[in-house]
């Protein structure tokens, strides 16, 4: 009779991290992650992964610590590539997060209606010949960003524009302050050129 294999007490957290970020709102998983963070870090290093943990903002995720050229590289985590428009939408949401964090808000989470995200995005996307098509494209980008895990839909609403989303803090890890600074610089240059042309 074989002895039953001892399952690691943090095995469920490893599986969760391989599927995507873990947030403090997932109370049980988050507490276990904090309890075993040292063991998790060591275990994940053996898989060629690094645990990224931000206790203050309340999120954790894993990323590859080896390059694809490395002989020991194993692809554990799905890599996503973004179109130019999707990248701009991510930067805009990160900009909203930055503005929220310097505000006097008592809330820990940034909640926005679809309408508010669209109004903010409209300032940065060039409107084409058809306004309806233009707004549908912004809707598509919002849905894509939600699908990629940067927005969390809080409810379904009869009126789509009234749907409320939580902008997940994981976006801060994807779009860091350097990327945000570069975007703001490009934006200022672009605005300056427009003023010269006007």
From TrEMBL:
One Pfam family of this chain: DUF4194
Domain of life: Bacteria
Record InterPro entries: JetB
Identification of the protein by name: DUF4194 domain-containing protein
Taxonomic path: Bacteria, Pseudomonadati, Bacteroidota, Chitinophagia, Chitinophagales
């Amino acid at each position: 009779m074989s002895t039953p294999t001892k399952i690691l007490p943090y095995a469920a957290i490893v599986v969760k991290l391989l599927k995507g970020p873990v947030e403090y709102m997932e109370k049980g998983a988050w507490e276990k992650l904090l309890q075993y963070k040292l063991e998790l870090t060591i275990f994940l290093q053996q898989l060629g992964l690094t645990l990224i943990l931000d206790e203050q903002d309340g999120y954790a995720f894993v990323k590859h610590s080896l390059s694809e050229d490395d002989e020991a590289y194993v692809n554990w985590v799905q890599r996503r590539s973004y179109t130019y428009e999707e990248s701009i939408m991510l930067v805009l949401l990160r900009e909203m997060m930055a503005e929220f964090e310097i505000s006097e808000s008592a809330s820990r989470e940034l909640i926005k209606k679809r309408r508010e995200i669209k109004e903010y995005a409209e300032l940065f996307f060039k409107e084409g010949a058809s306004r309806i098509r233009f707004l549908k494209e912004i809707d598509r980008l919002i849905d894509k960003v939600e699908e990629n895990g940067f927005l969390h839909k809080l409810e379904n609403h009869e009126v789509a524009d009234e749907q409320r989303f939580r902008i997940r803090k994981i976006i801060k890890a994807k779009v860091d302050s350097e990327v945000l600074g570069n975007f703001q610089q490009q934006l200022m240059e672009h605005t300056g050129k427009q003023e010269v042309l006007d």
